[in-house]
Amino acid sequence: MAAKLYAEDAKKGDRLAQFNYAMMLLRGEAAETERGEALRWLRRAADAGMMQAQYNMGLLYENGTGVHKSLTEATAWFERAAEQGHTDAQVSAATQYFLGRGAPKDYAKAAHWYRKAADGGDVGAQYILASMYEKGDGVAKDLRLALYWYTRAAQQGDAVALVKARAVARQYEAEQR
C-alpha cells in the first residue's frame, strides 16, 4: 500500500515520494521490481535537488548497481549532495579525491570535503583531516590544527585519535620551546 501511495505522489512530482518509491523498488519492497523504474524515480528525485537521492545515485554508480559502474559519475553525484551539506556524500567525495578514484588525486579538494564532514561531526573525517594537517597533505602542515581535530575525534570515542592527540601535543609542545 505504501508503494502505491508513493507511486501516486511520485507521479505528481513529489521528490520525497519519488525517492521513497525508488528505494522501495530497489529493495524489492514493492510489487513492481523493475530496477529501471527504480532508477528513473531516483534520478528524478536527484535531479530535483534531493541530496539523499543524489548520494544514493553516487552509491549506485560507485558499485555498478543497476547502472554501468562509473567512479567519475559517482564522484559527480557525491559532490552534488556534498555541496548541499550531506555529510556521507562529503566523506565519499573527499575519499574519491584522496584516492584519485573517479577524480584526479587532489589532496586539497579531499581536505576541503573532509573538513566539511568533520565540521558536521563525522569522526572518521575528523581523524583523516587531523592526519592531513599533521603531515601537510593538501593543507599547510599545522600541528595545532592536527591536535584540534584529533581531539575532536577522541571526544567522540576514537581511541586511536586519543593516542595521536597525545603524541601530537607532545610534538607541538617540543616545537614551541
Characterization of the model:
74% of the residues lie in helices and 0% in strands. The protein has helices at residues 2-11, 15-26, 35-47, 51-63, 71-83, 87-99, 107-119, 123-135, 143-155, 159-176. The radius of gyration is 20 Å and the shape is elongated. It starts with a helix and ends with a helix. The model has no long low-confidence stretch (mean pLDDT 94).
Outline the fold blueprint.
Layout: H1 2-11, H2 15-26, H3 35-47, H4 51-63, H5 71-83, H6 87-99, H7 107-119, H8 123-135, H9 143-155, H10 159-176
Helix pairs in contact: 1-2, 2-3, 3-4, 4-5, 5-6, 6-7, 7-8, 8-9, 9-10
Residue ranges: pLDDT <50 for 5 or more in a row? none
The average pLDDT value, as a whole number, equals 94
- End-to-end C-alpha gap: 69 Å
Largest sheet: none
Q: How many beta-strand runs?
A: 0
Q: Percent of residues in helical segments? A: over 70%
Strand content: under 5%
Shape: elongated
What is the quaternary state of this protein?
single chain
